[in-house]
Amino acid sequence: MIPLSFSFYFREFFPRIPVEHWIVMVLLSLFLSIFLYFRKKYTVYESVAIGLLSMTALFFFEAAIVIRLGNNNMLYSGIDLMTEYQKLLQRDKGDSYLFLFNLAVFVPFGFFLAEFMAEKELGVKPRIVYGTMVAFGFSLCIECLQLILKVGYFEVMDLVMNTTGAFAGIFFSIIGRMLFYKRSNAKNSCRKGEKH
């Protein structure tokens, strides 16, 4: 069961996104996937991975920037270097949930990014390096936009936790693929043995 504090932070820091915005995000991602597939440059799986990746990116942009622009109560800005980390050290339970939330929301981003790179036949090391760099760059853009548009603080710990979450998603993708291919190779070798 998700702790109440965790769900509170979800509602508080990522205000409810209107249904029509969700529809637009899903349709844009779907259109992108279909467009890329019919361009014959990407496989079905690559196109779906890009579509899901774009949807997660749109969600972060919507929740961190767009919704806050329409809410006058959330117009504030500044640079926060380590306040969250200091509160975490003081064992502030609420900030611990926010910490975990910032980590968890970027896991799908890292996962879909790694899946796309894997389909492009990039090795494990490039997936980890490039994937982490892209996630860091995307998180940095969000933090900078929050500061420039005055819809939030530029928080260093958000940057660290978002990048860590994406790294975890990349790791899950790599481990999942290793287990899947190991299992499928074992099945194929068994079938070949039965034929002989």
Provide structural commentary.
With 196 residues, the protein is mainly α. The chain has one domain (4-182). It contains 8 helices and 2 strands, in the order αααβααααβα. It has helices spanning 4-13, 19-38, 44-69, 83-89, 93-104, 107-119, 124-148, 156-195, and strands at residues 76-80, 151-155. The chain has a two-stranded parallel sheet with strand order 1-2. The chain is globular and about 50 Å long. The model is unreliable at 1-6 (pLDDT under 50).
List strands and helices in order, with pairings.
Layout: H1 4-13, H2 19-38, H3 44-69, E1 76-80, H4 83-89, H5 93-104, H6 107-119, H7 124-148, E2 151-155, H8 156-195
Helix pairs in contact: 1-5, 2-3, 3-6, 3-7, 5-8, 6-7, 6-8, 7-8
Q: Main beta sheet, described?
A: 2 strands, parallel
Question: What's the number of extended β-strand segments?
Answer: 2
How many helices? The count is: 8
Taken as a percent bin, the fraction of beta residues is 5-15%
- The proportion of residues forming helix, as a percent range, comes to over 70%
What keyword list fits this structure?
single chain, 196 residues, mainly alpha, two-stranded parallel sheet, 8 helices, globular, disordered N terminus
Brief overview:
This protein has 196 residues and is mainly α. Helix content is 78%, strand content 5%.
